Amino acid sequence: MVELTEKARRFLTGPNFAALATVGKDGAPQVSAMWVHLDGDYVVMNTALGRYKERNLRRDPRLAITVTDRENPYDKVTKNGKTIGISTWVGYSANEGKMLTLAILDAEHAAIGNEVTFVWGEENGGTSKPTVERHEQMEMRAIVSPVPYAEVARTGYAEGWRTGTR
Questions:
Q1: CA distance 125 to 52
Q2: Of 17, 57, 83, 141, whose Cβ has the fewest other Cβ atoms within 10 Å?
Q3: pTM to 2 decimals?
């Protein structure tokens, strides 16, 4: 079992949102937003018998928990030094071989192909997240792209929000 630091304990007992990912019956991830808390050295969460997460964990105990710092949950997106949006997720896509971010932009800057700047990390190198090391804030050039990013998902999936048809 991992021993939690005092900083991690404060973070996990604070009013921060968490996302619990479990493995579904078909092998796909199933993610639930929830609160977490500590009981001694154990991270605890609430569920009801018969819910997906409860059934998934009984069948396959693998899980991941991500906790979002309520004081600084987003990275920003800028254009010419002006904040034009927020990034709600960033990560590397092995499928695409690229860094991707999901962001909400002001409408006038959201045109496909528009170049913007993604600003990753907190100012002054700090965060209260116990899982994030001190770091330098970094700017990255980004190109506004369609969602979903993968063309096959936009064109080859069943009709719906991914393909822009109903």
A1: 38
A2: 141
A3: 0.49
